[in-house]
Structure formats: structure tokens, C-alpha cells
Amino acid sequence: MSNIIKKYEYAVMATDTVLFALDDGKLKILLIKMNKKPFVDMWAVPGGLVRGDESVEVSAKRTLKEKTGVANVFMEQLYTFGNVNRDPFGRVVSIAYMALTPNIDMEIKTTKDHKEIGWFDVKDLPVLAYDHEKIVKTAVSRLSAKLEYTNIVFQLLSKEFTMNELQTAYEIIRGEKLDKRNFQKKILALDLVKKLDKKTTGQAHRPANVCTAKHEGVVNVEIL
């Protein structure tokens, strides 16, 4: 990398977004495959430079949509990554965001400047460009921690779900089994979900009550 001509004379800002989804019993993130030296064939979280006329939040939403086709998902600022040598093209400070979606089957597409796009299990990631491994680890840790004191998990679930599906989401992200009776008792006591007048159908096991979240947004509440 020592022979790379630095592109930026002064420090610039960028945004990078770690988009999470649950699929097949795994926590996954969306990555794009690079086609730019020195990161050709390496994967990265979607991101880009902040324009002079936009906020960092607008930049994060714009670059996520431009690089992946994904829009209208829950997003929150994660952390600022400012290691001096994190980008070989110059002094780039990245303001990272964490995003969550309940829909892993959405249409995704990337730009002609990238080779591929795809979902990856956070426990089995390819080699990542820049310092994106650090960004992803920070996002996974933050998501897991926020399960303890917020209802953020509902941003990963469909509008309608069962209590078993809710518990499974916690177990996947936290990497540990939870006692079914205690977990469901705590969730109901916190008044976070509303049981609908319907049950699951077409499944091998006994029909289960269908629920929905009582809050549309993320609120602070002690869960675990």
C-alpha cells in the first residue's frame, strides 16, 4: 500500500452502515464486493463519502440505498472510526451506522463499481476491506447489548410474530438459550407485545398465538 497515491489532501468524512437481518437461525449482514484497488475482491459494508450539503444521517441513508437498493429501514448512529491509517486514499473519518430489517428477502442490488452483493453470517465473514471487521464487531456488540435495555429486537421481526420467534431472535443474537417460561413472563409483564386474535396455521406443531409489538419505535426498557 505504500505506493498508493493519496487521494485526499485534507481529512474527509464518510458513513458506513452495518445492515442486520435474521435468517435461517443466523444473524446476517449485507456486504458488497469491492472492485477498487487495493481491495479488489474483498468485501465491505456499504458506505461512502459525506457530501458537502448533507447531514451524516442523510449520507448514511443515501449511500445504503445507492450501494444496496435498501431504503426505509431502522437506522441509528453507531460509533466514529477515526484511525489515521484506516483508508489508504487519505485521512477519512467514518461515522458508522447500524441498521435493521425484518425482510431479508427484499430485492438487493449494487452499483457497477462493485462486483457482488450478498448476505453473510456474522460468525462466518469473508475478509473485509478497510477497518470494516472492527466496525462489524462493534455493531454486533452494540446490538447484543441493546437487547438488555431496549425493544430494538422488534426491528428484526415481521409485524406479526409468535413468542417463540421473539425468543429465538434473542437467542440468536445473544448466543445463549433462554428459559422459555421466564422469558415470556418477563416480556408480557413489560407490556411490550399485544396478543392478536389469531393463531399460526399450516405448521406441524401446535398452533401458537400471534403477537404484534405495542411500540413502533425503539424505547428503553429493562428486558434481560
Descriptive notes:
The chain is α+β, with helices and mostly antiparallel strands. The protein has two domains: 12-145, Nucleoside Triphosphate Pyrophosphohydrolase; 150-213, Arc Repressor Mutant, subunit A. 24% of the residues lie in helices and 27% in strands. It is built from four helices and ten strands, in the order ββββαβββαβααββ. The protein has helices spanning 56-68, 132-149, 163-174, 180-189; strands at 12-23, 26-33, 43-44, 47-49, 74-81, 92-100, 117-121, 160-161, 193-199, 209-213. A hairpin with a 2-residue loop joins strand 1 (12-23) and strand 2. The longest helix is centred in the middle third of the chain and has 18 residues, at 132-149. The protein is elongated and about 60 Å long. The mean pLDDT is 94.
Summary keywords:
224 residues, alpha+beta, Nucleoside Triphosphate Pyrophosphohydrolase, Arc Repressor Mutant, subunit A, 2 domains, 7-stranded mixed beta sheet, 3-stranded antiparallel beta sheet, 4 helices, elongated, NUDIX_hydrolase-like_dom_sf, NUDIX hydrolase, hydrolase, WH-like_DNA-bd_sf, hydrolase activity
